[in-house]
């Protein structure tokens, strides 16, 4: 099965810095985000040198950071990984559904400074971030 077959009609585009990648790899989850809806899929935009949507996955659940079963205690996460409050959530991905894109969707002119949503067809065919934001 192709990973795009796992995605749903609405894909959340979630931004984070490169220092969030270890959290992603340790927990199969995305760190401390503010999210109001419950999308079923997410594309992860990595800022900095990457400047692209690099990961995509099917969401298992979105939960308060304080309730998440993380590989380390919350107090042991540093930098941006440790900045959260009562309204911050952890996006937990289904096992085996998180993929690193072999052809990331690069930054053009539109940057996802905050959580954004796109449709699946736009995500599938996007050549740059301008086409999904």
User: What is the H/E order?
Assistant: EHEEEEEEH
The CATH C-level class name: Alpha Beta
Overall pLDDT confidence: 82
Task: Report the CATH topology name.
Answer: ph1033 like fold
Number of domains: 1
Strand content: 35-45%
CATH architecture classification? Roll
Low-pLDDT stretches are none
Helix coverage percent: under 10%
Can you summarize this structure?
By secondary structure, the protein is mainly beta.
Structure commentary:
By secondary structure, this protein is mostly beta strands. The chain is built from two helices and seven strands. It has helices at residues 21-27, 120-125; strands at 10-16, 29-33, 41-46, 52-64, 89-93, 99-106, 116-119.
Topology (elements, then pairings):
Layout: E1 10-16, H1 21-27, E2 29-33, E3 41-46, E4 52-64, E5 89-93, E6 99-106, E7 116-119, H2 120-125
Keywords:
single chain, 133 residues, mainly beta, ph1033 like fold, seven-stranded mixed sheet, 2 helices
């Amino acid at each position: 099965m192709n990973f795009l077959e796992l995605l749903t009609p609405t894909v959340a585009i979630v931004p984070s810095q490169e220092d969030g990648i270890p959290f992603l790899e340790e927990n199969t989850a995305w760190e401390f985000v503010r999210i109001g809806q419950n999308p079923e899929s997410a594309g992860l935009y990595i800022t900095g040198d990457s400047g692209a949507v690099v990961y995509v996955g099917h969401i298992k659940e979105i939960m308060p950071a304080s309730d998440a079963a993380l590989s380390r205690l919350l107090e042991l996460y540093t930098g941006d990984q440790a900045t959260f409050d009562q309204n911050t959530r952890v996006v937990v991905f289904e096992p085996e559904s998180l993929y690193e894109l072999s052809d990331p969707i690069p930054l053009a002119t539109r940057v996802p400074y905050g959580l954004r949503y796109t449709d699946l067809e736009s995500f599938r065919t996007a050549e740059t971030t301008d086409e999904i934001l």
